[in-house]
Amino acid sequence: MRRFHCTLERRLKTLLRFLFIVFSVSLGAMFMPAFRRRPKAAGVVGRILAGYGDLELMLAQMMGMAMASKRPIRPHHSPPQHRIYYEHIGLQALYGVRGAEFRLKKIRQVCRPAFNKFGLGTELTDLLAMVEDCRIYRNLFSHCLWAQSKHRGLFFVDLEEEAKSPGLLSYRYRYASQGALDEIEKHYWLTVQYILNTSQLFTFKAGLSRSPPPLAPSKRPVLKAHKILLPYRNLH
User: Minimal CA–CA distance to 161: which of 175, 179, 174?
Assistant: First the structure.
């Protein structure tokens, strides 16, 4: 009898272990199945979502540069040390504000007078317009339901947009082609470069850098509106 109970106990443990593995695999398959089947496109979406944080970090440092240009250099500080000191203050000031839109408003308020003073008002306007494009796409992808087509790639439903329509919630899919996602990611990279070039030019003109003047930022690239770049399409 004791041997029977031991055998039964071992079989129950084996069964429970098997059920746990099956249940775990099922849960894993349920979480973002479209991304699991389209890892390349999913990686681009992930970088678009997470990469906006890098843009905000660069803008916070740029805001600190603007703050540094308005204040006298502290005793025993070189111009670069003075700039770096205020870059840290800029980080604290920006991240004390909640919400991406309010942070961009704060950046405009702090940076506009300083950039206008050194003849870089147009560059600041272009820069913030590029960041706004990135923010719009980041927000769009943050509130979506994702699916995938066997032959075409990723699709999504903008739930916030659909919720505005009268009646029951509908599911109008939009096509996020690999080409469209690559174009959005490229705009992110161009925005990073534009922020770097504009910030370096500002610090040179403001006397906060000993580096030679960088090349002026190129003409602002224009990213297509999301309803053009990511059109409504039938999933099947």
Answer: 174
**DSSP type of residue 99:** S
Per-residue burial over 17-27, b if 16 or more Cβ lie within 10 Å, else e, is: eeeeeeeeeee
The answer to whether 55 touches 195, Cβ cutoff 8 Å, is yes
Is residue 44 within 8 A of residue 182, CB to CB? The reply is yes
Q: Which of the 8 DSSP states describes residue 96? A: T
Bridge partners of 232, per DSSP, are 174
3-state secondary structure of 77: coil
Chain segment 18-46, per-residue pLDDT in tens: 334 334 434 445 678 888 888 899 999 99
Question: Model pTM?
Answer: 0.81
Residue 84 Cα distances to 77, 112, 124, 143, 231, angstroms? 10, 20, 20, 36, 44
Tell how many helices (H) and how many strands (E) occur in the chain: 9, 3
β-bridge partners, 114: none
DSSP symbols for 126-186: HHHHHHHHHHHHHHHHHTEEEEEETTTEEEEEEHHHHTTSSSSPP---EEE-HHHHHHHHH
